[in-house]
Amino acid sequence: MDTLARRPLRADARRNRERVLKAAQVAFAERGHDAQMDDVARRAGVGVGTVYRHFPTKEALVEALATDRFERILAAGREALEAPDPWDGFTGALMAGAELTASDRSFSEIVGELTGPMPVPEPLLKELYDVYGELMRRAQTAGQLRSDLVLDDIPMIMCGIGIGARKTHECPQAWRRHAAILIDGLRASGASAPLPS
Amino acid sequence: MDTLARRPLRADARRNRERVLKAAQVAFAERGHDAQMDDVARRAGVGVGTVYRHFPTKEALVEALATDRFERILAAGREALEAPDPWDGFTGALMAGAELTASDRSFSEIVGELTGPMPVPEPLLKELYDVYGELMRRAQTAGQLRSDLVLDDIPMIMCGIGIGARKTHECPQAWRRHAAILIDGLRASGASAPLPS
DNA sequence: AACGATACGGAATTGACGTTCCGTTTGTCA
DNA sequence: TGACAAACGGAACGTCAATTCCGTATCGTT
User: Which residues in 157-186 of chain A line strand D, with CB less than 7 A from it?
Assistant: First the structure.
């Protein structure tokens, strides 16, 4: 790791970095991995060279975007911890995470694929586990969430809703129906039998 | 459409066509769209030219495979109609469809993506709707399945479980937990409120 | 067995990107 | 304002994978 305090970026460089990130966000959210570096550059109003100055490879750019998404999911979780009712907090965070997943094709490709580990910095991952674990525990303690749910189930569930949501039905809100069904299945009162181990 | 009765394929051609299909099945199930035509040819023990003789483009090959998957999902639905209990039939078909989706990376990429319409021949699609519609109606009539579920919800649900299942947890059976939760949410008795329209 | 018609193999072609390179421009600091 | 480092733009390059092409081999028929 470089412990060097590198001098601050030049003003134009900082501005361009932001532009590239913003353009990439849009391009990759729209077209997933098929988005092209040239396209990102064009949207950002810079040359490809500039994109590469800031992100050495396409992969690095995608990872930066993914990290940003994970941070938003974490933020949604933190916010949900403020909710007065544990059940509302937990389900709200789940929905928010699903929505964040659904609205970004690149991100949903990443979390939807089994290929390799997810590109999340370790500390961020840990925080995610902490926050979502706490949300879960509270809802379970309150007797609202089925007690046989474990933390490891969360990503799969969130991802399941999120990916399903990407299928554009006639009604863009159709995914909320899916989510509502799943959430009913998560209620302590809805459990018909213990989950398989 | 060609209404011409084209003469039957030569014996070697028929054999090779099967080989290609089988090899492609494996290759695409494993590596999704990243599988290469050369790789398919190698696995089939034929030259690339032969692959192209039978399937004019990569896309055509993928579509043939997808159609086959849809047919299997249809077959699973038909089989489920035999089940004595409507609920078991319905949920069994759902699980079978999810499993078929999960076990084929290429197929799950297709159904998981919103890009364009799914490559299903119209009549096959209609049969799918018929069979799954019937399964659904029976379970609803029996009072077992929540009555506010509609046919359009099925693909999203099946796909949600299937895609989630592709995420290899430590435990490869983890997706069954996800499915069990969702299925609990589908019970007439589990509905906490009508689904959003 | 001989002769088309079919089908085959795989080298060569093509096109599409990711990435690199380098001459030019711009910001910063004295 | 002049000098220099930092950053830029975008043409050019290299790679990789889909697709084409055509000389050769095989099948089915007479």
Answer: none
Partners of residue A111 in chain B, C-beta under 8 Å:
167
Do the beta carbons of residue B120 and residue B66 sit within 8 Å? yes
Chain A residue numbers touching B183 (CB-CB < 8 A): 185
**What separation in angstroms does the CA of A28 have from each of A36, A37, A70, A103?**
9, 10, 15, 11
B5 has a pLDDT exceeding 70:
no
Per-residue tokens: B182: 């969702």
What would the pLDDT profile of B30-75 be if each residue is shown by its tens digit?
A: 999 999 999 999 999 999 999 999 999 999 999 999 999 999 999 9
pTM: 0.92
Q: CB contact, 8 Å: A184 with chain B? A: yes
The answer to whether A116 faces chain B, any CB pair under 8 Å, is: no
Dihedral of CA B107/B112/B118/B123: which sign?
A: positive
Is A184:A190 a contact under the CB 8 Å cutoff? yes
Q: How far apart are CA A156 and CA A133, in angstroms?
A: 14
